[in-house]
């Protein structure tokens, strides 16, 4: 199981297909107000968790982790949680 990179959702390994291969299944979307986090609890497994930003609700630059904002045809900004303050920030990628 892993977090879906583009959506606030979990995807699990599925299959086998007609060739005997495994594949990623249909995304299971997190509830409103939740985000997918890669390592949760003692088992360090991916899960949808409530995201409550500390003191910075009015300073978040995006809505959920993994959200992408296009800047040009080949560049985008992606949402992440900044370690220093736990706020949602956009960073540049190409």
In short:
The chain has 94 residues and is mainly β. It has strands spanning 2-3, 9-11, 13-14, 23-24, 28-29, 34-40, 45-50, 68-70, 76-81, 88-93.
Secondary-structure element order, N to C? EEEEEEEEEE
Q: What is the overall shape?
A: globular
Helical/strand content category: mainly beta
Radius of gyration: 15 Å
Which strand-content bin applies to the residues? Answer: 35-45%
Count the strands?
A: 10
Gap from first CA to last CA? 27 Å
Q: Overall pLDDT, averaged?
A: 83
Largest sheet: 3 strands, antiparallel
Q: Poorly predicted ranges (pLDDT <50, ≥5 residues)?
A: none
How many H/I helical runs? 0
Sheet with most strands: strand arrangement = 1-2-5
Helix content: under 10%
Structure description:
With 94 residues, this protein is mainly beta. It has no helices and 10 strands. The protein has a 3-stranded antiparallel beta sheet with strand order 1-2-5, with no helix packed on it. Strands 8-9-10 form a 3-stranded antiparallel beta sheet, with no helix packed on it. The chain has a two-stranded antiparallel ribbon with strand order 3-4. Strand 1 and strand 2 form a beta hairpin. It is globular, with a radius of gyration of 15 Å.
């Amino acid at each position: 199981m892993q977090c879906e990179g583009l959506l606030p959702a979990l995807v699990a390994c599925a299959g086998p297909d007609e060739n005997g291969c495994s594949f990623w299944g249909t995304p299971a979307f997190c509830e409103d107000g939740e985000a997918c986090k890669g390592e949760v609890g003692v088992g360090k497994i991916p899960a949808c968790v409530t995201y409550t930003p500390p003191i910075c609700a009015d300073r978040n630059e995006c809505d959920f982790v993994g959200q992408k904002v296009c800047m040009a045809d080949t560049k985008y900004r992606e949402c992440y949680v900044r370690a220093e303050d736990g706020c949602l920030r956009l960073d540049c990628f190409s």
